[in-house]
Structures are given as structure tokens and as C-alpha cells.
Amino acid sequence: MIAILSFVGLKILLHDYIEVPEWASLGFIALSLLTGVLVSLKLSKDEDIIEETKAQKKL
After folding, report:
1. What pLDDT, on the 0 to 100 scale, is given for residue 14?
2. How does DSSP assign 4-51, residue by residue?
3. 2, CA 20 to 30 Å: which among 17, 28, 32, 37?
4. CA dihedral 37, 5, 2, 17 (to 10 degrees)
5. SS3 at position 58
């Protein structure tokens, strides 16, 4: 989320100097969101594995 907000903020500030195509903006935002979802799913899976391992050790 920070990356998206930073990108949009810089785009607004530099609008008079640099023209960023719409497809590039949308691509960056989509890629950022996809990366966030994938990392979140990976971390969630890793936490589940750790919890299962701890539960098995208690038995």
C-alpha cells in the first residue's frame, strides 16, 4: 500500500515534468496489489506450518 501511495504522490508532484502513461500506472498498481496478495498468502501458509509443527511436538 505504501508503494502505491508513494507512486501516486510522486506522479501527482511530477505531473508537469514527466508524463506517465495510464497503462504504466495501472500496471504498477496491479503488480503491487498482486505482490501484496501473494506475499500475504505465503506468510499465512508459513504460519500455519509453524503452528502445526508446534502442535505435533506437544503430542
Report:
1. 94
2. HHHHHHHHHHTTTT----HHHHHHHHHHHHHHHHHHHHHHHHHHHHHH
3. 17
4. 120
5. helix
